[in-house]
């Protein structure tokens, strides 16, 4: 069981996300708990201020140290350090990947802090265990990044996917892209399904799929094969 804690200025963005599909099922089954916190609740003064203009000048607003510091302290007050992870979502972080999803799936509590505006007061970086980016592009806020992390982690937890879903071999399994998949019809205006898949010979199909996965990876993502024979 894993608990995600999401700190955001836009909690409503998560309402649809949390209520649908496998994520809704996993919550009902008690395999995952997700808590969404409004950073504004830790805002300062009667306007619950969370951001301010940058020292030294410049455009935009910067998220202040205090609301985040106090929020982290309150949210994590009962956490045992070793089994928990505090993560700042930022384009300056390490690029998130499947390996990181696997690592995170072993924690009991994961806090995901979503920024907005011009980002965080630099001193906030020292309050977390790590900084993660979901790619080399700029989003308006960390919420979509938090959803990507939640979705990629929780599906790895035992019992979340059905047996059939869980045994599927997917892209990045074994460091390869997934083999090509086809469904009906067998012949779509002359574009045919490879005959081996219709042969019923499971050994041959497995061999073909592995070869295709390697071929696809060489063609599309040779970087995944770095350091391999
Ligand atoms: C407009 S961005 C701020 C970018 C910041 N000025 C910078 O250059 O690092 C606002 C927030 O969106 C989130 N964000 C934007 N791009 C992201 C990415 N690639 N991965 C994770 N979070 C991202 C972060 O939480 C960030 O604080």
Task: Write up this protein.
The protein has seven helices and nine strands. Helix content is 29%, strand content 19%. Strand 8 and strand 9 form a beta hairpin. It has two domains: 153 residues, SPOUT methyltransferase, trefoil knot domain (Alpha/beta knot); 57 residues, Trp Operon Repressor, Chain A, CATH 1.10.1270.20. Strands 2-1-6-5-7 form a five-stranded parallel sheet, sandwiched between helices. The mean pLDDT is 95. The chain is elongated, with a radius of gyration of 22 Å. The protein has 229 residues and is of the alpha/beta class. The structure holds S-adenosylmethionine.
Briefly, what is this?
It is an enzyme of class 2 (transferase). S-adenosyl-L-methionine binds at residues 115, 134-139. This protein folds into two domains: 2-154, Alpha/beta knot (3-Layer(aba) Sandwich), CATH 3.40.1280; 169-225, tRNA(m1g37)methyltransferase, domain 2 (Trp Operon Repressor, Chain A), CATH 1.10.1270.20.
């Amino acid at each position: 069981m894993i608990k995600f804690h999401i700190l955001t200025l836009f909690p409503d963005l998560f309402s649809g996300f949390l209520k649908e599909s496998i994520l809704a099922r996993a919550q009902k089954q008690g395999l995952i708990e997700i808590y969404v916190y409004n950073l504004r609740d830790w805002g300062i003064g009667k306007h619950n201020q969370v951001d301010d203009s940058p020292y030294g000048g410049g455009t935009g607003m910067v998220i202040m140290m205090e609301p985040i510091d106090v929020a982290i302290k309150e949210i994590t007050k009962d956490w045992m350090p070793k089994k928990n992870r505090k993560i700042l979502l930022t384009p300056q972080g390490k690029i998130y990947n499947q390996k990181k999803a696997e690592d995170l799936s072993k924690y009991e509590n994961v806090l995901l802090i979503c920024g907005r505006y011009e980002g965080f007061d630099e001193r906030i970086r020292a309050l977390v265990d790590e900084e993660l980016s979901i790619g080399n592009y700029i989003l308006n806020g960390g919420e979509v990044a938090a959803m990507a992390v939640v979705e990629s982690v929780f599906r790895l937890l035992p019992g979340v996917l059905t047996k059939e879903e869980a045994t599927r071999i997917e892209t990045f399994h074994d460091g390869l892209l997934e083999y090509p998949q086809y469904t009906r019809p067998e012949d779509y205006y002359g574009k045919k399904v490879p005959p081996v898949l219709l042969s019923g010979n499971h050994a041959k199909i497995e061999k073909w799929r592995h070869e295709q996965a390697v071929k696809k990876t060489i063609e599309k993502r040779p970087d995944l094969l770095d350091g391999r024979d």
